[in-house]
Design a protein that fits this description.
The protein is an alpha/beta fold. The chain has helices spanning about 5-15, 110-125; strands at about 35-40, 50, 60-65, 75, 85-90, 100, 105.
């Protein structure tokens, strides 16, 4: 996980760094924390998340969408039970991965293309 991104999450939530800081370690609680979630919408049972949408049971995540039980992940969509992942799309049970689609390595261009397809589909149904 990008250490700068993790530091930003810690700063946003007013938490002391988790040990070890790289990768983000879920077992040790962050404390003291004044804020639970920041700029999250339609999320349930999430803790210390930022800019998440339609996700549940996530911890210390940033910019997740439609995800479940993720920990220390950012910039991911439609992930389930992933830990320490970034730029992942439609993945399950991954740990410490970056740029994955359907649990397989992908290029940034492929991820951007898939994001555009989903955004176009979502905007046409609104």
């Amino acid at each position: 996980m990008n250490l700068n991104k993790l530091k930003t999450l810690i700063t946003v939530h007013g938490c002391k760094p988790c040990a070890p800081p790289e990768p983000c370690a879920p077992p040790e609680p962050c404390s003291p924390c004044d804020l639970t979630n920041v700029n999250c919408y339609n999320c349930k049972e999430c803790a210390h998340c930022n800019n998440c949408f339609n996700s549940d049971f996530c911890t210390r995540c940033d910019n997740l969408s439609n995800s479940h039980s993720a920990t220390c992940c950012y910039d991911c969509k439609y992930i389930i039970s992933c830990v320490g992942c970034s730029n992942c799309f439609l993945c399950v049970n991954l740990k410490g991965r970056e740029n994955y689609i359907l649990n397989k390595p992908a290029t940034i261009a492929q991820i951007k293309q898939l994001n555009q397809i989903f955004e176009t589909a979502n905007s046409s149904t609104s």
